[in-house]
Amino acid sequence: MVRTEFELPDVGEGVAEGELVAWLVGTDEHVVEDQPIAEVETDKALVEIPSAYDGVIVERCAQEGDTVPVGDVLVVFEVDEGAAEATDTVVPDEEPEETTEPTERPQSDRIERGDEPGVSDERVFAPPSVRNAARELGVPLSAVAAPEPGDRITERDVREAARRDAGDTVPLSDSEPPEPATERESNGTTPDGTTSGRAPSSSTGNAPISFEAAGRDRTLAMPATRRLASEKGLSLDDIPASEQRDGEPFVTPADVRTYSRDDASASSVSDSSGTDSPPTTEEGPRPGDRIPYTGVRRTIGEKMATSKYTAPHVSHHDEVDVSELVEARSRLKPEAQARETKLTYMPFAVKAVVAGLKEVPAINAELDEENEEIVLHDEYNIGIAVASDAGLMVPVIDNADQKGLLELADEISDKAARARDRSIGLEEMQGGTFTITNVGAVGGEYASPIINHPEAGILALGSLKERPWAEDGEIVARETLPISMSVDHRIVDGAEAARFTNEVKRYLNNPELLLLE
């Protein structure tokens, strides 16, 4: 056995460091390759750091709350000598060890495209979303070829590997419609449609099975699930798991809630028999507390300040009669439900925005200050602002102009749910060309939203409800939607903002026009 160092890997484009939020394993604990060992909060998301080895952790080189630069040593492992030779730096023990004959395989033996997969044990760089896709498709990450040695593996790389194994039966395009989930949560309807939950999936493809908790010493779970269990004062090892990942028990948030209810019921019976139990309270920030301005919250603040003080904002407010849209959605809902899709108003808004951007290209743009050029984008990648415990997250719907209403609905629901529990990949929140935010979800009507810099515009949707409306000299009740638009006045004139808003209104007021898009 030899000791080897494991450095904090590159967890996303432009990420230079991360704050260590929580250790998921302890010193002297044995872990397997790809097992999450720590939660790290970058300036963009909360990510799990998977182990690169099958071995024992002999030293944790950072404490919770520390900021760790990418490339710094995170932990020291004790692993088999052969595994250490193929990967990271070996840490010599106090006593000298015998030297080994050099192997013919180079230290960086990542598989090149065209080579046979499955021969490399080198550390694999892949975000959590890609690792989840690999599990769902049954593809070992060690069998996936990255574009270049040391590159991060993408979902497309995983699908290509799965296609080779399955005989071209796995779709390569990331834009193809996702499989409909078997269960969807209905948490009410708001214009953004981001209240839908994401149905859990089993990576094994087998029917859900229940793992007994007794005697279990290792349990897999997402960071949000671990936080939920911690908040409820529960141990993951005590909770029966309804799924498995790589043959290991995998606890979902639903498992935690079910176990919590059962535990509460048992406690209630105990209390009724005369046994008192102290009340439990959830500790949160209290008046007088000083909350660290770090991680995602700090990054959001810095980006807001950059946008506000770099791009001179101008706002435009309007209101649209969406009575026909409400009726159209009501007619389509049964068909959407039959396809296990929750159809909200947000997909309609996305389609209307894309139509407006095509009509006014200056808003689907950004200013390249270094080269003094206005860049008109030829893609329509729409960001959807989602509120999370850590602050505002903006997952991006790539190529929204190429997707239908139900496909948009599924993707928005899925990405919004993963943005809330912070399991979404960093690459899924990059590359946006325009953003939609929903202030109506909390009852708001109008706003002056801050642009998601370097984009040129952002649209805020207010609360959709019945309001008085003047029509043919009479006051009637109509379903209306307030909308607010902010643009970068350096590259977008007020007239262009108004023209864009009018185009969005036209499509929302006449939803049958969306069939043409």
Automatic annotation (TrEMBL):
Pfam families the record matches: 2-oxoacid_dh, Biotin_lipoyl, E3_binding
Biased composition (Low complexity): 265-277
GO CC aspect terms: cytoplasm
Compositional bias (Basic and acidic residues): 102-124, 149-167
SUPFAM superfamilies xref list: CoA-dependent acyltransferases, Peripheral subunit-binding domain of 2-oxo acid dehydrogenase complex, Single hybrid motif
Swiss-Prot/TrEMBL keywords: Acyltransferase, Lipoyl, Plasmid, Transferase
Location of the region described as Disordered in the Swiss-Prot/TrEMBL record: 84-125, 141-294
Entry's family note: Belongs to the 2-oxoacid dehydrogenase family.
Name of this protein: Branched-chain alpha-keto acid dehydrogenase subunit E2
